[in-house]
Amino acid sequence: MKTGKKIETGFFLLFFLFIFFSLIINFSAGKEMGLKSFYFGKNLFIMLPPAFILIGLFQVWVKRETIEKHLGTGSGLKGHFYVILLAGTTVGGLYVAFPVAAALYSKGAKLSVIFTYLGAAAIVRIPMTIFEASFLGLKFTIIRFLISIPLIIISSEIFGRYLEARSYKMRENSE
Amino acid sequence: MLYLYAITTTSLVLSVIADRQKTQQALKIAGKRFINILPDLLIIIVIASVVLFLIPSETIAKYLGKDNKYIAVFLAMLFGSVTMMPGFIAFPMCGLLLNQGVPYFILGAFSTTLMMVGIVTFPLERSFLGTKTALIRNTISLVIAVIVALTIGLFYHEITI
Q1: Which of the four, A31, A165, A174, B129, has the lowest number of CB atoms within 10 Å?
Q2: What angle do CA A104, A70, A124 make, to 5 degrees?
Q3: Residues 66-85 of B with CB under 8 A from A
Q4: Over the stretch A93-126, which tens digit does the pLDDT of each residue have?
């Protein structure tokens, strides 16, 4: 385990102890944080295992050539279009999107498409959009989509090219 | 959430039928990657619960309704960036604020930063993208959120040039 990860784990254990003692001595702030972390953590651990199984299946079944062809260099605007569709069906939040992006990258998707995916996974997820439209109106959602999607594609294209020119490599986080 | 489990189960069954060994390999990859990011997830839980404790949604609601629109939009982006809440909590809250007279563009600033800028998920993002790239990605997202909020304001005639 890397040092950074060890520190993170240690920090979590300290937090856990803090919650534990808060329960014993009836410290209300600690108890409330414990409750919040429980609900939040529960969500994470419900979403992530199936997401990771899908990533694993993707990794063994999908051919590298397929991803390179549709999402790699030379895929043009179509690549962006495909990942926006994929992003629409992504569940959870950015914490699911990062591992998915890493899997796409390891199969040969280009960086600009990866950034479009991350941006789109944040803002066009279908279940969330339904909530948005029903509480703020369809007009609000449509305006937001029409402005943010082109901005995401343009900025990702620029950022992706900038990084590729500097031969940046995304960490695959699978070592 | 249910459909995620349905899709995963179906894919897994199909995969086992097609090739047992490949499926085993897939599960191994899944487990390894999950364990790899586990420390990041644990720290996200800690940060999220501290942030949510310090800035509960009632506080956010109170500040977004401030009279000074410019302060309110600034706070909206700040809260949107540092907190984290699922859509089924955030949007009903926005709907409530809208009924109380909070302008659309302030809600747009809040919801867009909430979705795109992630201080809480930063530890995870960093281990995939590296610190510098993660910082730039968040900055770009913040800029996009500003543009989105301003345009929404123009469309609803809340901001006039």
Answers
A1: A165
A2: 65
A3: 84
A4: 888 999 999 999 999 999 999 999 999 999 999 8
